């Protein structure tokens, strides 16, 4: 059945409940209740008193009366001995059962929390629970004085009097709602919903059995733990048949509730709402007409009185239909229901300080929010970028980071795989839609936001673990426009650890961006890896915690629109930076998405395969949680990192399942939130049996969930952008063959004397420009940084990429265009009048061939030596390689100022440059070894190691060159140095094999060392 998240039934935020026992009106007990209670009493007396009495009378003391001796152990085992052993076992079982009864009795009478688990007493504790529940069913203590039952439903304004309909559950019902409830029970309830309407319609009174003279009312209770009240369960408890929930729905549909909203769907009820009940309702301390009823707060009496007056008008109100009810639910931003999402209140003054690198007063228009000005501004260049990626900063950052890792991996694998052979040194340059997608990622990405989100969540987990507190269940995270992080909790969880603060109410924990920036790395498991961006609302970005939803989340809308949402969710989950690891199962879509993260994403063809997978997964996780003694994956994640054990499993099912499959899925998902399994399921009709939360994606790009109070500008990844992103990853695949790293650099320069450039920039080492006057004023650092970016991207730079690189927090178009014009004027024109900064056919900024960097020369020298003139001329090859190695003066942009050049984190130049230098050193070493000049070869290798100290190929070649000199002691020294550097990881296999060949005794030397 559909379950909704609920909280305080009244105004304000939920607060501590008043636990003072207060008498409430009794209900009439049935004869069956007394029979069950009497039977339970007899059973308890027999088990607790009769069993030990019988053991004492029949068997007596079963243990030896003295200290056992060796002779006693050697005696023959008689029937009496065997009976005594069995008696001891029966005593132990009795003691365990007695402990279970005490634990269950304490929990039922106190009403606080779940009963403690008695070790190894599963069946015994279940039996004790059932007997205690039956006994307390007619007990005055349970019905009238149990604080955990009588005080449910009190909000902050709730007086110190009793609740209206305090029996959210009878004691037996309360116990039956604990985590021992099986998934099969929940699924059976969902399955019966299908014929509920016809059953209600077949009643002679049409399902409206209430009469004015005997009208009874029930007040919806707040959630207890992970359980939320529902019409089905109310009908089950008070009408004897859950399928009669339709009668309650018809009696209360579209009637105004105390909080101003209305019941528009049978699947949604909220704490504090009042339900008129059919006349034959019984049990649970239902309240009849509240006049002169003792123990009921005056405010609540007035609410019921006012609600009773709406009954005669419900038909007129019902003409407005469910749509109005949905709209009222969405607009009711003061709902106290924690499942009703609310945009957090933003703090005043969200500016985080002056934008770094702000060069003049002209640039004071920089927006304080990352990328906001850049994203919102028109492009101004005559063409745009895919806004789906530009407007998704967390998704873009994840994709960009994963793409960079993939390209680095491709380069290293290419280098290690080319043993003694020339390899490709340059990753392919994207073109067409792939280039647009890459530029959109560069513009939209907010890596700093991802980093702070990750640090904040892990810091919270570490702080809670230090206080021995569990992680609260988080339904959503909101990233405000000012950079603050708000966590929306399923229910109040007390005061958060510093520097976190309470937000607008008890269900919000807030962390200011300034406090998040002070967090440091911590070895703590990612607490909420299932968070994923859905869209924005009022300048706040919503991340839904898929694994915490109490059941299935359904998504309706057209197939194309649903596909865009599903692809966005899958891509972000697969590449986000706030998770350790997870499994994402894609069903009915996304086979092409697997290149984004082959280790996380898996594709299944049909629902049947999904069912088999989920059944095995739920069994395994229940067993693992039980063995570890945890209530849920959240308690397992608090404390030392257990990344692999409690990683979430998120299921994305794009195609609508059949009714039977939907019910099976609902059964499996009934306990999913506790197990860390989340399900997002697509539906054409908008109605999915068993869906806990329902969302809809519209053709205008709005993500609607009226019952949750959401109307978002949806984050989507349309098919065109999806294909372009996948193309980027496929081209970067190290197994991509000819599409992997290639031999020719994208830009070659004339390395002869006639090819002297007009403007020459040294980037490898300290940044220096030859051929231009240094700009005056505060704009000089910006101009230098812009030129460096253009020099590293000879294929061209999109104007929006340039602005987002120089001003990560955003900038207006006029500021960006003014900088481009100043850069164009600084670079000047070639002798033929052509500007050295131009614009290509796609609108990207490009440099003329007369503007060259030492990195361009370095690549061209190596290319010419190995594939050009140096192939046929040994002398030319040696000269070109030597000239190339001389250009290496240190790391790239060695003296760049702190706080600038942040865009280099998106680049892979830090991996490409050391590999290129190593290739040059290896080629020059081979050149010298051909003529037996081992010392020269060693010199070239040592020079290369200054830029690539960890390259295994250089060390292996250095061993060969040193061995060629005949200096065995030097070889031993190198071997010892290598062993020391390798540490606990040990030497690479190729290096070990080489040492075995060159120095067979190296292992004994390493052991001695």
UniProtKB/TrEMBL annotation:
Q: Which domain of life is it from?
A: Bacteria
Its GO biological process annotations read: phosphorelay signal transduction system
Bias kind Low complexity: ranges:
195-210
Q: According to the UniProt entry, which residue ranges have a biased composition of type Polar residues?
A: 1-11
Q: Which residues form the Bacterial transcriptional activator domain?
A: 853-999
Bilayer-spanning residue ranges:
34-61, 81-105, 126-146
Gene3D superfamilies noted in UniProt: LysM domain, Tetratricopeptide repeat domain
- Here the segments flagged for biased composition (Basic and acidic residues) are 349-370
Positions of the UniProt region annotated as Disordered: 1-26, 195-224, 310-380
Keywords in alphabetical order:
Membrane, Transmembrane, Transmembrane helix, Two-component regulatory system
Name of the protein described by the UniProt record: Bacterial transcriptional activator domain-containing protein
């Amino acid at each position: 059945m559909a379950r909704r998240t609920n909280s305080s039934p009244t105004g304000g935020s939920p607060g501590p409940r008043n636990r003072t026992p207060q008498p409430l009106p009794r209900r009439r007990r049935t004869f069956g209740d007394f029979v069950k209670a009497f039977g339970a009493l007899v059973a308890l007396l027999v088990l607790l008193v009769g069993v030990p009495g019988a053991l004492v009378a029949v068997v007596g003391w079963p243990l030896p009366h003295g200290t056992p001796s060796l002779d006693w152990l050697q005696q023959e085992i008689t029937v009496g001995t065997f009976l005594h052993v069995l008696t001891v076992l029966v005593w132990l079982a009795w003691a365990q059962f007695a402990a279970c009864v005490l634990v269950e009795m304490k929990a039922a009478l106190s009403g606080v929390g779940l009963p403690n688990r008695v070790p190894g007493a599963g069946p015994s504790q279940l039996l004790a629970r059932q007997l205690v529940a039956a006994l307390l069913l007619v007990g005055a203590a349970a019905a009238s004085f149990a604080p955990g039952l009588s005080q449910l439903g009190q909000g902050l304004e709730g007086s110190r009097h009793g609740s209206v309909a305090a029996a959210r559950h009878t004691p037996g019902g309360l116990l039956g709602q604990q985590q021992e409830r099986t998934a099969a029970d929940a699924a059976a309830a969902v399955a019966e919903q299908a014929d509920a309407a016809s059953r209600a319609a077949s009643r002679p009174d049409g399902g409206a059995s209430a009469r004015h003279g005997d009208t009874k009312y029930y007040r919806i209770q707040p959630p207890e733990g992970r359980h939320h009240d529902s019409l089905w369960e109310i009908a089950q408890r008070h009408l004897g048949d859950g399928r009669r929930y339709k009668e309650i729905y018809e009696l209360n549909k579209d009637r105004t509730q105390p909080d101003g909203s209305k019941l528009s769907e049978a699947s949604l009820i909220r704490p504090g709402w009042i339900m008129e009940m059919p006349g034959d309702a019984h049990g649970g301390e239902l309240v009849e007409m509240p006049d002169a009823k003792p123990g009921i707060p005056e405010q609540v009496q007035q609410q019921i009185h006012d609600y009773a007056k709406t009954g005669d008008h419900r038909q007129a109100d019902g003409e407005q239909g469910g749509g109005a009810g949905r709209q009222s639910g969405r607009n009711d931003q003061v709902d106290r229901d924690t499942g009703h999402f609310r945009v957090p209140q933003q703090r005043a003054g969200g500016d985080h300080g002056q934008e770094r690198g702000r060069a003049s007063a002209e640039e004071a228009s920089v927006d304080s929010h990352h990328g906001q000005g850049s994203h919102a501004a028109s492009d101004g260049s005559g063409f745009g970028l895919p806004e789906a990626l530009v407007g998704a900063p967390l998704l873009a950052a994840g994709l960009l980071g994963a793409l960079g890792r993939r390209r680095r991996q491709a380069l290293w694998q290419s280098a290690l795989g080319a043993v003694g052979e020339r390899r490709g040194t340059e990753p392919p340059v994207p073109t067409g839609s792939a280039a647009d997608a890459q530029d959109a990622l560069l513009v939209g990405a907010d890596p700093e936001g991802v980093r702070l989100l990750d640090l904040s969540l892990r810091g919270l987990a570490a702080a809670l673990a230090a206080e021995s507190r569990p992680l609260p269940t988080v339904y959503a995270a909101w990233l405000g426009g000012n950079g603050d992080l708000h966590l929306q909790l399923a229910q109040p969880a007390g005061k958060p650890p510093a520097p976190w603060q309470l937000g607008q109410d008890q269900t919000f924990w807030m962390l200011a961006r300034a406090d998040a920036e002070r967090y440091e790395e911590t070895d703590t498991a990612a607490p909420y890896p299932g968070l994923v961006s859905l869209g924005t609302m009022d300048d706040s970005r919503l991340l839904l915690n898929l694994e915490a939803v109490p059941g299935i989340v359904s998504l309706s809308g057209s197939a194309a629109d649903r596909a865009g949402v599903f692809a966005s969710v899958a891509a972000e989950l697969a590449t986000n930076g706030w998770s350790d690891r997870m499994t994402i199962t894609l069903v009915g879509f996304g086979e092409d998405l697997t290149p984004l993260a082959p280790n996380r994403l898996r594709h299944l063809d049909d629902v049947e395969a999904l069912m088999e997978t989920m059944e095995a997964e739920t069994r395994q996780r229940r067993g693992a949680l039980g063995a570890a003694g945890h209530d849920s994956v959240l308690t397992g994640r608090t404390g030392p990192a257990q990344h692999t054990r409690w990683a979430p499993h998120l299921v994305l099912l794009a195609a609508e399942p059949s009714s039977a499959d939907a019910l099976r899925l609902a059964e499996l998902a009934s306990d999913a939130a506790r197990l860390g399994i989340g399900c997002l399921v697509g539906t054409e009709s908008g109605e999915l049996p068993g869906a806990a939360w329902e969302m809809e994606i519209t053709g205008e790009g709005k993500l609607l969930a009226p019952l949750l109070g959401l109307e978002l500008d949806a984050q989507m990844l349309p098919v065109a952008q999806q294909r372009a992103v996948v193309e980027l990853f496929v081209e970067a695949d190290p197994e991509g063959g000819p599409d992997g790293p290639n031999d020719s650099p994208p830009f070659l320069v004339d390395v002869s004397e006639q090819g002297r450039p007009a403007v020459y920039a040294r980037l490898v080492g300290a940044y220096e420009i030859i051929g231009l006057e240094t700009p005056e004023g505060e704009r000089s650092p910006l101009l230098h940084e812009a030129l460096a970016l253009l020099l590293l991207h000879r294929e061209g730079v999109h104007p929006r990429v340039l602005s987002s690189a120089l001003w990560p927090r955003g900038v207006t178009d006029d500021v960006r265009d003014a900088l481009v014009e100043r850069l164009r004027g600084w670079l000047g024109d070639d002798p033929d009048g052509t500007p050295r900064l131009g614009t290509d056919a796609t609108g990207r900024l490009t440099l003329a061939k007369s503007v060259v960097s030492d990195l361009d020369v370095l690549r061209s020298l190596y290319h010419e030596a190995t594939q050009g003139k140096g192939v046929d001329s040994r002398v030319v090859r040696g000269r070109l390689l030597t000239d190339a190695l001389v250009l290496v003066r240190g790391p790239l942009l060695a003296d760049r100022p702190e706080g600038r050049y942040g865009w280099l984190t998106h680049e892979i130049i830090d991996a490409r440059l050391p590999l290129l230098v190593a290739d040059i050193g290896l080629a020059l070493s081979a050149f010298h070894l051909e003529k037996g000049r081992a010392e020269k070869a060693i010199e070239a290798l040592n020079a290369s190691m200054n830029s690539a100290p960890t390259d295994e190929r250089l060390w292996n070649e250095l061993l060969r060159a040193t061995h060629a000199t005949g200096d065995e002691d030097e070889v031993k020294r190198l071997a010892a140095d290598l062993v020391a550097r390798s540490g606990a990881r040990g030497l690479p296999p190729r290096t070990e094999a080489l040492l075995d060949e060159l120095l067979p005794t190296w292992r004994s030397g390493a052991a001695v060392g």
